[in-house]
């Protein structure tokens, strides 16, 4: 028993000695590692101190590197004052085709979406009764034509011939009576004949004179009044019958409904057998070969726009060129804007009426002005605008400017720059006045594409 306890005690002591030895070894290794780290930090500090001393010996602190910038010259050119507004598209022409008579629909020859030409037959109405009325009017007209020919060629001619014969007969009678009177007057003067036969011959001659004058007045009246009025009356009856016949023909023609314009059928509201009524559209036609964009423009901008100015509208396959056709002379009191119409072509009829588009109207073109890229414009600390002008020594100078018209990526500079001044287009933001810069070449588009890849 005592021997077993001694063995156990000896084993515990051996284990304790081994653990103590391991602890001493670990502590020694850690101390060596810390000592090495402290030595390295001390060496780094010495190196930094040597570098600082070298800088001080070289003449002071290290200089700041120049700021890289890209530049572009201010140029003299033209810039457009563009008025931009949203607009709604309308057809250039449209028509609601309505009948002029009330009649049943015989047939409709078009459907929605069909293209039609001006004058093309698009529908027919039942017009049997109107055709009969037109035929009756035709016969009445022919009857009055015959009556007119009779008056002008027979009746009036016969009356005038009889009157002329009466005048000739009265003239002959007067001539005979005058001869008798002259003969008897000569004999009475010679004393060979009594006075009474001479007086009787004078009376006969006077009576023949009166008959001649009566016949002449009748012929004159027949020529100047009766004949003219008879012909006029017959002609009036003929013209009235003609007008009635033409009216009946026109009424019958109303049964054929034709398109008044070139365009596309946008609506069809009747079918065969239905009753067409005046004022009720049968079909609606729109001409969308060209469209009108109606924009509401502020009064200030509208005052710059004139009829005929060019404009552009974004289409499904690129911008479409148009022109201003209408500038309303009045202001809409509800919106305090002026309505401006821009007419554009519609190739392929891809734009549809009722759609909205963005209109760019070139109100005026400013010539011979200073223009710079919009990327060169910076906000100044005092609230205005500025650019950084780079001189020939690659030194940046802050320059205050006044801006005018902006057109896309170009801006008009009213004052503050001269033609040829090099302005920073990138790298100028945050650049101090009189800072040193290095001019870089702008990246080509191919380089940008490769970077994107």
Features of the shown structure:
453 residues; alpha+beta; Elongation Factor Tu (Ef-tu), domain 3; OB fold (Dihydrolipoamide Acetyltransferase, E2P); 3 domains; six-stranded antiparallel barrel; four-stranded antiparallel β-sheet; 19 strands; 42% helix; elongated; disordered N terminus
Describe this structure in a few short sentences:
Helix content is 42%, strand content 32%.
How is this structure best described in words?
- The chain has 453 residues and is α+β, with helices and mostly antiparallel strands.
- The chain folds into three domains: 71-79 and 285-444, Efflux pump adaptor protein, beta barrel domain (Elongation Factor Tu (Ef-tu), domain 3), CATH 2.40.30; 99-127 and 255-281, Beta Barrel (OB fold (Dihydrolipoamide Acetyltransferase, E2P)); 129-242.
- It contains five helices and 19 strands.
- It has helices spanning 2-58, 128-190, 195-253, 299-302, 445-452, and strands spanning 67-73, 75-97, 103-108, 115-116, 121-125, 256-258, 263-268, 275-276, 283-298, 310-315, 318-327, 337-345, 356-373, 378-379, 385-390, 396-407, 410-415, 422-426, 437-439.
- The strands form three sheets. It has a six-stranded antiparallel beta barrel with strand order 2-9-12-11-10-13.
- A hairpin with a 5-residue loop joins strand 14 and strand 15 (385-390).
- The protein is elongated and about 215 Å long.
- The two termini are 87 Å apart.
**Main CATH class of the largest domain:** Mainly Beta
If helices are DSSP runs of H or I spanning 4 or more residues, what is the number of helices? 5
Rg over C-alpha atoms, rounded to the nearest angstrom: 58 Å
Oligomeric state of this protein: single chain
Number of strands: 19
Annotated CATH homologous superfamily of the largest domain = Efflux pump adaptor protein, beta barrel domain
- Supply the CATH architecture of the largest domain: Beta Barrel
Task: Give the amount of beta strand, in percent.
Answer: 25-35%
Largest sheet: 6 strands, antiparallel, barrel
Mean pLDDT: 80
Output the strand order for the largest sheet. 2-9-12-11-10-13
Uncertain regions spanning at least 5 consecutive residues:
1-5, 25-39, 53-62
Termini, distance in Å?
87 Å
Helical content, roughly? 40-55%
